[in-house]
C-alpha cells in the first residue's frame, strides 16, 4: 500500500509539470522573438507582423507535438485529458496565428507591389519557391481543425478522427520546409537554422519516442496475453492478462492503457480501459461495460490472445495524494480505477458509488471485501440523475458534506460520466475544498 509521509513534497507534481511547460514555452518565445528581431526589418509593417505570427504559429505547432508525445513524466503529472485539452487549444492558436501570417503577408506584399490582395496571393503562390507547399499545409490544417471542432468530432468515430488527424504531420513537414527555405529569419543565419532544426528535431524525437519506440519496447519486453475472461454481470466483463517482467512495468492503480487485442477483427482498434485492480507484478485486469461493439466483443476473447498495450497513462494516482485520508467518488465506468485506487491509497477512505439502480453497482462485492479489510466506508447512491436525498441532490454540496463531514481535510478523487463529474466538482468548490486536494480525470483520446 502506498504511504503519504507527513512531509509533503516541496513542489506538487502537477505544479512541476506546468512550470516545466511554461518555462519551455517562455524560453522559446524569447528565442523566436530574438530571431525575428535579428532578421531585420521588412518592406512593410504588415509583412513584419505576418512574419512574427508565422514564427509564433510554428512554435505553437512544435509545442503541440510535445503535448501529444505521451511522455511518461508529463503524463503521470498532468494526465492525458489535460494534455489533450492543452493540445486542442494550442491547435486553435496555431490556426489563428497561421491565418494571421497568411493575411498580413499577402496584404503587406500587395501594398509593396501595389497589387490587389487576390492577385498578390496568386503571384506569391506561383512564383515564390515554397509558398505553394505552405498553402497546401494551411489547407490541410483547416481540414484537421474542422474535424477537431466539437460538433464535428461528436459525429465521427475515433478511428476516422484519428486518421484525418494524421495529416497534421504532413502540415508540420511542409510548414518547416517552407520556413527554413524562404523565412527571412533563417535564410542568412546559420545560428537561426541550427536553433530551428534543434527545436523541431527535439519535438519529433519526443513523438517518435513516446508514441512508437517506448510502446514497442514495452510490448516486446512484457509480451502480454489474455489468461481469462470473467463475466461480472450481464453486460460487464473482466479481462485478466499476464506477461513477462510485469513487476518492472511502471503501472499504478488508477491508470489506463490503450489496448489492442491482436485478433483478426480487432488488431487495428485501440480502446482505453482502466486497470480495475492494482498491479501486483504478476497480472493485470481491466473491466469494461458493453456500451459499444469494441467493449461488447471482449466477451469473445480467448485465453492466449496476444495483446499490444500502450501505456500506462493517466494522473489519477496516489502520486498526487497530499492529505492523510481520502474520498473516492465513482460513477459508471469510473468505478474501475476507483476500485484499483481503493487497494493502493493511504489512510482512511470513504467511497461514494453513484449508480442508476442497485443492479448497476458492478464490482460491489470486491469493494465491500476491500473495505472490510482496510476499514473503509462505502456508500452506494442509487437513483435517476434527478434523484435527491435528505440533503438535496445525491452528489450536491450538502449531501457530500453530510456523508463526509471532514471532506475539506481529505484528498478527493472523482471519476465518472462528465455530467456527474462536473456536478461533484461544483459541489466541492461550494464546500471550498482546496483545489490541490481535488483530482479528476476524463479518459479522453480526442477532447
From TrEMBL:
It holds the Pfam family NAD_binding_1. The chain crosses the membrane at residues 21-40, 46-68, 89-110, 130-152, 164-182, 194-214. Keywords: 2Fe-2S, FAD, Flavoprotein, Iron, Iron-sulfur, Membrane, Metal-binding, Oxidoreductase, Transmembrane, Transmembrane helix. Residues 219-319 form the FAD-binding FR-type domain. CDD domains: FNR_like_3 (cd06198). Its main location: membrane. It is found in: Membrane. It is a multi-pass membrane protein. SUPFAM superfamilies: Ferredoxin reductase-like, C-terminal NADP-linked domain, Riboflavin synthase domain-like. This is Ferredoxin reductase family protein. The keyword Transmembrane helix applies. Its cofactor is FAD. The lineage of its organism: Bacteria, Bacillati, Actinomycetota, Actinomycetes, Pseudonocardiales.
Amino acid at each position: 500500500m502506498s504511504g503519504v509521509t507527513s512531509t509533503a513534497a516541496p513542489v506538487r507534481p502537477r505544479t512541476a509539470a506546468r512550470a516545466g511547460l511554461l518555462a519551455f514555452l517562455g524560453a522559446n518565445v524569447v528565442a523566436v522573438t530574438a530571431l525575428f528581431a535579428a532578421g531585420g526589418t521588412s518592406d512593410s509593417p504588415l509583412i513584419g507582423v505576418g512574419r512574427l505570427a508565422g514564427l509564433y504559429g510554428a512554435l505553437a505547432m512544435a509545442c503541440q507535438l510535445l503535448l501529444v508525445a505521451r511522455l511518461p513524466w508529463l503524463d503521470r503529472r498532468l494526465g492525458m485529458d489535460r494534455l489533450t485539452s492543452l493540445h486542442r487549444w494550442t491547435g486553435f492558436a496555431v490556426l489563428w496565428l497561421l491565418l494571421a501570417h497568411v493575411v498580413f503577408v499577402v496584404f503587406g506584399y500587395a501594398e509593396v507591389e501595389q497589387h490587389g490582395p487576390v492577385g498578390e496571393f496568386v503571384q506569391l503562390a506561383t512564383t515564390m519557391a515554397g509558398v505553394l507547399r505552405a498553402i497546401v499545409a494551411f489547407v490541410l490544417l483547416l481540414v484537421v481543425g474542422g474535424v477537431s471542432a466539437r460538433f464535428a468530432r461528436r459525429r465521427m468515430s475515433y478511428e476516422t478522427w484519428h486518421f484525418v488527424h494524421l495529416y497534421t504531420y504532413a502540415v508540420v513537414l511542409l510548414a518547416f520546409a517552407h520556413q527554413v527555405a524562404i523565412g527571412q529569419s533563417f535564410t542568412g543565419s546559420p545560428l537561426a537554422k541550427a536553433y530551428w532544426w534543434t527545436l523541431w528535431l527535439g519535438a519529433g524525437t519526443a513523438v517518435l519516442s513516446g508514441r512508437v519506440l517506448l510502446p514497442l519496447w514495452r510490448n516486446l519486453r512484457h509480451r502480454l496475453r489474455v489468461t481469462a475472461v470473467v463475466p461480472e454481470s450481464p453486460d460487464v466483463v473482466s479481462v485478466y492478462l499476464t506477461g513477462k517482467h510485469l513487476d518492472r512495468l511502471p503501472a499504478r492503480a488508477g491508470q489506463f492503457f490503450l489496448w489492442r487485442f491482436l485478433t483478426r477483427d480487432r488488431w487495428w482498434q485501440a480502446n482505453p480501459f482502466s486497470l480495475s485492480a492494482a498491479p501486483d507484478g504478476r497480472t493485470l485486469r481491466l473491466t469494461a461495460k458493453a456500451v459499444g461493439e469494441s467493449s461488447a466483443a471482449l466477451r469473445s476473447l480467448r485465453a492466449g490472445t496476444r495483446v499490444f498495450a500502450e501505456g500506462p497513462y493517466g494522473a489519477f494516482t496516489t502520486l498526487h495524494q497530499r492529505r492523510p485520508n481520502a474520498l473516492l467518488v465513482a460513477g459508471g465506468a469510473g468505478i474501475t480505477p476507483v476500485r484499483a485506487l481503493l487497494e493502493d491509497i493511504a489512510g482512511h477512505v470513504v467511497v461514494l458509488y453513484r449508480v442508476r439502480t442497485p443492479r448497476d453497482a458492478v464490482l460491489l462485492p470486491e469493494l465491500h471485501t476491500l473495505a472490510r479489510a482496510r476499514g473503509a466506508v462505502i456508500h452506494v447512491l442509487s437513483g435517476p440523475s434527478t434523484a435527491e436525498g435528505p440533503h438535496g441532490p445525491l452528489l450536491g454540496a450538502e449531501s457530500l458534506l453530510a456523508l463526509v463531514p471532514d471532506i475539506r481535510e481529505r484528498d478527493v478523487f472523482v471519476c465518472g460520466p462528465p455530467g456527474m463529474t462536473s456536478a461533484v466538482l461544483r459541489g466541492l468548490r461550494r464546500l471550498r475544498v482546496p483545489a490541490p486536494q481535488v483530482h479528476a480525470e476524463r479518459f479522453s483520446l480526442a477532447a
